[in-house]
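Quick one:
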Amino acid sequence: MVQIRLGDVFFNRKAGRYQSKAGGFLSVSDIDSILAAEEQALATRLENIAVRAIKGKWDSGELERALKLEIKESSIQMAIAGAGGQKRVAQMNKKELGRFYGGISGQLKDPYKRIERFTKQITKGKLSEAEILARSRSYVNSVTPQFSKAQVFERRNAGIKLAKRMLDPTANHCPACPQYATDDFIPIEEIVPIGVACPCGRHCRCRIVFKGFSLSSRNGMIG
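Output:
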C-alpha cells in the first residue's frame, strides 16, 4: 500500500469526509495513521537538530531558530490539512486567512517560550544529552493540536453549528480530557479542539463529531 502523506489529504465538503488526492476516501483510523506518521517524522527531525547542537555544529541561537522554524512549518502543514487542504485554504478570503494564520501563531507562542528556556538551559550546561534529545522530541505535542484547531475552524466556516467531543473509552486519558467531553451536541464554538490546553497533545484519542454532514450511517462527521 502506498503511504499517504499529510499533503495528499483534503476534505470533501459534499461527502463530509477526508479524501486522498488519489481519489479514495479516508477513515478515521486512516487519518490517525497519517497524523502518527507525520508526528514520528517530525520527532526525528527535531532530534536530528538537537544532535547537531550536541556535536557542537550549532550554537544555542542556531538551535533555537532551527527548532522554531521546524515546528512553525510543521504547524502550518498540520493546519492546512485540518482545514481541508491547500485548495481550500487558497479559497479563503482575507479575513478568514487572517484568522486561520492567527490561530497558528497563537498556538506557537507557548512552545516558542519553552524553546527559548530550553536553549538557555543548554548554554548553562543544565541538561544531559538524553534530556536534550527528549525535550527536542517533546515539541511535537505543540504541533499536533493544529490539525484539530483548523478542523473546527473550517467546519464553522462551512456552516456547521453543532458538535460533540467524545472520549475514547479504552484510552488512559490525561486529567484535562474528561472536562472537555460533552454529553450531547453543543454550539461548535464551545468545543475545545483536541490537543489544545491538554497535556497529552493529540494522543488522548478523543473524537469530535460535527453535526450537519450527511452520512449513510449517522448525521455527522467524526473528526
